[in-house]
Design goal:
This protein is α+β, with helices and mostly antiparallel strands. It folds into two domains: about 150 residues, Beta Barrel (OB fold (Dihydrolipoamide Acetyltransferase, E2P)), CATH 2.40.50.140; about 180 residues, Orthogonal Bundle (Hypothetical protein af1432), CATH 1.10.3210. Helices cover about 40% and strands about 15% of the residues. It has a five-stranded mixed β-barrel with strand order 3-4-5-7-6. The chain has a two-stranded antiparallel ribbon with strand order 1-2. α9 crosses α13.
């Protein structure tokens, strides 16, 4: 035991002073809450920095409760674990004071937390992408969903978590997706379209690494590293298959447009997989105009690129959201654009099922209400298992 201590505990209502906390792990959390990672001083009174210079290891505070994935938490459960900060927002309360709204999560789901005291201090250690150790009570609000009433909060230390537990990723291996992409591009017969794809997605292209690593979205589907590659490849493979079923579709144009339809996300989203957010350009111009200008610049650098091909591919990019109210400046006016839009929409919705299933607790078959689907999702296979 470290002995008794008095420290500030952060709650979802207001802070309170709690005296005579004697549990080792809770006392260590309090010291870190006050002084930052590692606490203030070691048991002999020396600073942590001095202890590290002297070659001594600082005592590790064990988690008060066994860490669980967010999807495994139950209403009313006490938690003490490391979570990833997805979003951070400082808001103004009705009384004129500020409070901090956090979205925290791991690879299986997210939850909301409010911080009412020491907002400036805690905001600094809760930047999007930060790993924080949180102790409190988990609950599910009928209207607002999963929440945690925070008692203690501090920056996490590397030995307290496994990075793979915090970050989601595609089910397919990266090398397999890249091989499938190369194979699909090789089937495009038109030399101009092949040159366009090679210039943007070729192994040595300046944009290839960004395309390979980018997320497909901020929240709803494939919102993780390599998500854009996974999404665009899936859309293009489906477009390729369906092009052989319906007559009148230019397969090369449709596949090219499918692979490039979301290219604007390279500029619209940040590249940090720990903190996916909109860039200033994304907020000011939107991903569709950014994608249009990027592909148009590449087309203009290719000698002799046929104008009718340029119009066909660029129309797919501009119209792939399908409706003006969904962000497209024009609606799909060609077979190829209609096909890409429909498969893109389908891919996004099916990606939402993947996300929701990862968030389900063991044994659950129904998800909660999902904004993308407009209702809950049912997973019958989980019931059979």
């Amino acid at each position: 035991m470290y002995g008794s201590a008095t420290f500030t505990i952060v709650t979802s209502s207001r802070s309170m002073k709690v005296a005579t906390q004697t549990a080792t792990s809770v006392h260590h959390l309090a010291m870190c809450r006050r002084y930052g990672p590692g606490g203030g001083r070691d048991r002999d009174g020396s600073s942590s920095a001095h202890a590290q210079r002297a070659g001594r290891s600082r005592p590790n505070a064990a988690l008060a409760f066994g860490a669980m994935f967010v999807r495994e938490l139950t209403d009313g459960q006490e938690i003490d674990q490391v979570l990833l900060v997805r979003e951070r927002e400082v808001r103004s309360g009705h009384d004129g004071g500020e409070y901090l709204r956090l979205t925290l999560g791991d690879r299986t789901g997210t939850l909301t937390a409010m911080v009412w005291e020491d907002v400036g201090e805690l905001s600094a250690c809760c930047a999007p992408g930060a790993r924080v150790r949180v102790a409190g009570r988990y609950g599910v609000h009928q209207r607002y969903g999963a929440q945690v009433a925070i008692r203690l909060l501090r920056s996490a230390e590397p030995h307290e978590y496994e990075p793979a537990d915090l970050l989601d990723g595609p089910p397919r291996a990266l090398h397999r997706m890249e091989a499938d992409l190369r194979e699909l591009v090789a089937t495009v017969q038109d030399p101009h379209l092949r040159a366009l794809l090679d210039g943007i997605l070729g192994p040595g292209a300046p944009t290839w690494e960004a395309y390979r690593d980018a997320p497909a979205a901020k929240r709803y589907h494939q919102a993780y590293r390599h998500g854009l590659l996974e999404h665009c490849l899936g859309v293009a493979q489906a477009v390729s298959a369906i092009s052989a079923t319906f007559g009148g579709i230019d397969r090369d144009v449709a596949v090219t447009g499918a692979l490039l339809h979301d290219i604007g996300k390279l500029d619209a989203y940040t590249s940090d997989p720990l903190a996916i957010d909109m860039t200033d350009l994304g907020k000011l111009q939107g991903e569709i105009p950014l994608g249009y200008y990027r592909v148009r610049r590449n087309i203009e650098e290719l000698p002799g690129f046929p104008p009718e091909l340029a119009v066909a591919v660029l129309h797919i990019i501009l119209s792939h959201h399908g409706q003006l109210e969904h962000g497209s400046p024009v609606t799909p006016c060609t077979r190829e654009a209609t096909l890409v839009h429909m498969i893109d929409n389908l891919g996004g919705r099916l990606g939402s099922f993947d996300r929701l299933e990862k968030e389900l607790a063991e044994g659950a078959t129904w998800s909660g209400y999902d904004r993308v689907l407009g209702g809950g999702a049912w997973f019958a296979a989980r019931q059979a298992a």
